[in-house]
């Protein structure tokens, strides 16, 4: 389909996080440092899992390595552009670039949601069915579950972009955010998109709520099962799953809020978008490494091998 027949807008203007020049200079330095630490932190986890045979053969760490890989993409789809825009007077993005941001946000975000459900299932099998753990969570099963999460993320994303890209954009082109977010972009179309918007937002909301409910059910079953088996089991289960529960809460909280009130003009939406796209990928490596002895030991071994090699 020829986009030129449907769109007169060739670029969008992003409002960014703020208009203050002093704040923008501060944000340039601050978010540059956050982005570098985020990419390096997640990359170290990926390299550690790949290089350590014990971790690489473990279903939990195999899934964690995939989560870190996704976090690198989640942090990179909009943050580098936002950082560059802090030094620009006009924050412009092409029509194609805008659609690409929407695609990658929903692709990576949708994939990560399903992957978090997979990680919860992994913990359920490890705690509730320990004798069958390696049989149930075989490498073939893990790879299959990861591929399913990528396919669901892709189908979800392409369904969002397919409708958005074919809308007629012929007038206003200002997006009140630092990246092209779906609810903000479809409001700029030159036709009534209320019903279409509700359908598209419902798609995202359904995926978010479905994954969130599955996660709640998984961790509830884990706690009930362990509590019935042994005294003090709940605290041990919470200790094992605490990192996962923390990540799930941080990930789904902003996501559900944004898509339950998609057309709100309240400035908290922008803050939640920053938290969702920048700080969650930044916090995940800290949560998983600071609370995980095996990961810290493997990182030390990797560092010592690197020092010895040089």
From TrEMBL:
Gene3D superfamilies, A to Z: Rhodopsin 7-helix transmembrane proteins
Keyword Membrane: yes
Recorded superkingdom: Eukaryota
Primary subcellular site in the record, as a coarse category: membrane
UniProt keyword annotations, A-Z: Cell membrane, G-protein coupled receptor, Membrane, Olfaction, Receptor, Sensory transduction, Transducer, Transmembrane, Transmembrane helix
GO MF annotations, alphabetized: G protein-coupled receptor activity; olfactory receptor activity
Residue span(s) of domain G-protein coupled receptors family 1 profile: 41-288
Record localization: Cell membrane; Membrane
Residues that span the membrane, as ranges: 26-49, 61-79, 99-121, 142-163, 206-226, 238-261, 273-290
GO cellular component: plasma membrane
Keyword Acetylation included in the entry's annotation: no
Topology of the protein relative to the lipid bilayer: Multi-pass membrane protein
InterPro entries listed in its UniProt record: GPCR_Rhodpsn, GPCR_Rhodpsn_7TM, Olfact_rcpt, Olfactory_Receptors
UniProt record similarity statement: Belongs to the G-protein coupled receptor 1 family.
Protein name: Olfactory receptor
Gene: OR4K14
């Amino acid at each position: 389909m020829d986009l030129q027949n449907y769109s007169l807008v060739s670029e969008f203007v992003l409002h960014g996080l703020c208009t203050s020049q002093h704040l923008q200079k501060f944000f340039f330095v601050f978010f540059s440092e956050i982005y570098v630490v985020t990419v390096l932190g997640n990359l170290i986890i990926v390299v550690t899992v790949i290089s350590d045979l014990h971790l690489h053969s473990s279903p939990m760490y195999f899934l964690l390595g995939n989560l870190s890989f996704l976090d690198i993409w989640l942090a990179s789809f909009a943050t580098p552009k936002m950082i560059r825009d802090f030094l620009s007077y006009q924050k412009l993005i092409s029509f194609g670039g805008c659609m690409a941001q929407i695609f990658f946000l929903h692709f990576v975000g949708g994939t990560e949601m399903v992957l978090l459900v997979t990680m919860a299932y992994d913990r359920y099998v490890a705690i509730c069915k320990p004798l069958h753990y390696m049989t149930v969570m075989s490498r073939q099963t893990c790879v299959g579950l990861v591929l399913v999460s990528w396919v669901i993320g892709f189908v979800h994303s392409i369904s969002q972009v397919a409708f958005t890209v074919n809308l007629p954009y012929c007038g206003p082109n200002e997006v009140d955010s630092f990246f092209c977010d779906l609810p903000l972009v479809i409001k700029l179309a030159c036709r009534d998109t209320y019903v279409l918007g509700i359908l598209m937002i419902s798609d995202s909301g359904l995926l978010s709520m479905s994954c969130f409910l599955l996660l709640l059910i998984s961790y509830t079953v884990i706690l009930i099962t362990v509590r019935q088996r042994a005294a003090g089991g709940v605290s041990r289960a919470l200790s094992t799953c605490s990192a996962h529960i923390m990540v799930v809460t941080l990930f789904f909280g902003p996501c559900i809020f944004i898509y339950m009130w998609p057309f709100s003009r309240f400035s908290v939406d922008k803050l939640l978008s920053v938290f969702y796209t920048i700080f969650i990928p930044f916090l995940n490596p800290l949560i998983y490494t600071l609370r995980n002895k095996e990961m810290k030991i493997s990182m030390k071994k990797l560092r010592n091998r690197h020092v010895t090699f040089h």
